[in-house]
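Following up on my earlier thread - several people asked me to post the actual chain instead of describing it. Fair enough. Here it is, all 137 residues.
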Amino acid sequence: MDDTLTVELHNRAQAWAAIKGQVFPFLARVLQGGGRWVLSISRRKRTKAQNRRYWGNGVLKQIAEQATVNGRLYSAETWHEQFKRQFIGVVELPNGEVIGKSSTGLTTAEFCEFSDQVEAFAAANLGVTFYDLEAHG
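Reply from S.P.:
Thanks for posting it. Predicted structure:
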């Protein structure tokens, strides 16, 4: 018996149908076996498609290939750190240095907004022309 259920909810009608059709039957089955269970409901984190669009052959790769600052190219990882600091914020380390806040906790909508900010900045300020980007996932 599988002890995990993941259900993606999009709107009230679809959510109610999923709760009746999937969640209630799942709970009825697993609660017969006793034990303690935890039901968590949270916003969806960024998707694999969003990661591919941003990392893969997408946004950061194209910035790393095209954007020069003082005649120098930077890696996708370096640009990501720059953009986290610029658009998400920073975390102060014990030694007083700062690093960009992680983007892994962003919801799908927040990550889409972050990616859009990166693209707009790169196009307007770094002269990057984006090509063949996947749609936001």
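Residues 67 and 105 are 27 Å apart (CA to CA). That should answer part of your original question.
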